[in-house]
Structures are given as C-alpha cells and as structure tokens.
Amino acid sequence: MAFKAISTFAASDGEVDAILPAAITLAQREDAHLTACMLGVDMTPAGGFYMGASPLLLQETLERAQADAEALEARARRHLSGQPLRWATEAAVVQFGGLPSLVGLRARFSDLVVQGAPYAPDAAPSREAVIEAALFDGKAPVLVLPKGRLPDAFGQRIVVAWNQSAEALNAIRRALPLLRAADQVVVAIVDPPVHGPERSDPGGMLTGWLARHGVRCDVSVLARTLPRISEILLRHMADTDASLLVMGAYGHSRLREAILGGATRHVLEHAELPVFLAH
Questions:
Q1: What is the DSSP letter of 133?
Q2: Which of 81, 125, 144, 222 is deepest in the core (most CB within 10 A)?
C-alpha cells in the first residue's frame, strides 16, 4: 500500500515552520493528500480551578486555545498556498488530556503521520503525546524528523531494526513503500538469541518475504558492543550512511520506557536522522 493520506499535527509556530515544509515535500513525492491539523491545546489540568471560578476561567482558556489554533491554521495555509499537491487544514481545540482521542481519530485515517522529534529542546509537551496517540490510538505509523526536514538522500539507504517482535514486523509492513523505493535496505539484528527460531539463519525468513515484495536487502548481524541496542543501531546507521531507521515502537510499556528508558525513547532522544515507527 502506498502513502496516499499523510497527516501532521502542530501546536506552535515553530512546529508549523519546521515540520510542514518536510510534510509537503513528502506528500509531493508520494502523490499523497496532506492534512495539517493545527492544535490549540489547553494545558490546564483537570480540576485545576477553585470552586465557583472554573466556568469563567475554563471559557477563557478555551477561547485562547481557539485563537491559537486559528492563528496556526492561517500560518499553515500560507505554507500550503500555491503548492502543487492536494491538501486540507483544520483548527482543533483540545485539553491536554483529550489529545489521544482527537489525534487518534484523525491518525486512524492516515497512512502516515509526520512529526518533529518529541524530546528536542524546543519541543512542546504536546509533541510526545501526539506521537504516542498516533501510534497507540490511531494505529498509524509515524515518521519522526529530528531536524524537522527530510535529508537530501532520504530513503536511499534504510536500516531496519529486526528482533522478531510483532512491533518490528508491523513497522516493516507499514514501511514497505519506502523499502521498495530504496537503493539499499540493511536488516540489522543485534545479538540474536542462540536458541531462537532464527538461530541458523537470522533474518532469513524476513528477507525472503521482503524479496517477494521487490525489496533489495542485506542482513547485518551485530554484536552487542555497546550498553544500549539503540546506540548500536544509530552507530550502524552512520557506518552504512543510512538516511532512515525503521523500527517497532515501544516493545515495553510506555510507563516502563518513561521511567527506566528503552530503545524507542533512547532513539528518539538521540537520533539525528529520520525514524519510522509503528507499534
């Protein structure tokens, strides 16, 4: 399946200016429809108002969020106006706790969601919530662009992280349009288990399946020479001059990754090149 419906979400001027040009470029490349959803996020915690004042203050915060969303939509339209592609914009108002429902509903009908890095110094608190909502509530793949742009060689060489998990396989399935178009795909397997089902041929069944889809790929079995698997994957990207990492997202729970860390969080914190995620 090709990417024919691409979405992006932004909650600040910086996000609009950073991510929308890249989303436009990708939509043009894929001949896809681009939907830009501009978010006015009310960050007031539930129950955060004192007795008797909440209706007035809540109305004021929602009106401010509405004004923010409309201003962002106008900014997005200036980026999109005159571009040779099919596009639509939307201004949406939501309280922070309601982001999963709003983003999830829209992401559900997208082939791909394009977002900026969630842990960048200038990232709004909503950015991480948007990515997780798209992955978990929308069941959509997310392309995270750490520098807010597509590299010139985007997708020419791709590293695929393979650990036999359902999340990794789903990410590979969802990334097939990119994998088929790539010049080189490297399936990276870090320290495969000696008693696992693929012990005699790590990645063999996966590469055979990919070959049937017209994907040219090689297998790299990597020793665990660094403390984190994510560090090994990012170093392998640099060694192979890759411009995209495809990986399953949150094999452990989000709470565990937030507290103890995990491959997904570490990659999103340190990646300098695009990361394609699916859960």
A1: I
A2: 144
Domains of the chain: 5-145 (3.40.50.620), 157-278 (3.40.50.620)
Encode pLDDT of 55-105 as tens digits: 666 678 889 999 999 999 999 999 999 999 999 999 999 989 899 999 999
Three-class SS string for 232-266?
Answer: HHHHHHHHHCCCEEEEECCCCCHHHHHHHCCHHHH
pLDDT in tens, 159-205: 999 999 999 999 999 999 999 999 999 999 999 877 677 777 889 99
Pick the closest to residue 131 from 148, 146, 150, 144 (CA basis).
144
- DSSP secondary structure string for all residues of 33-82: EEEEEEEEEE-PPTT-S-TTTHHHHHHHHHHHHHHHHHHHHHHHHHHHTT
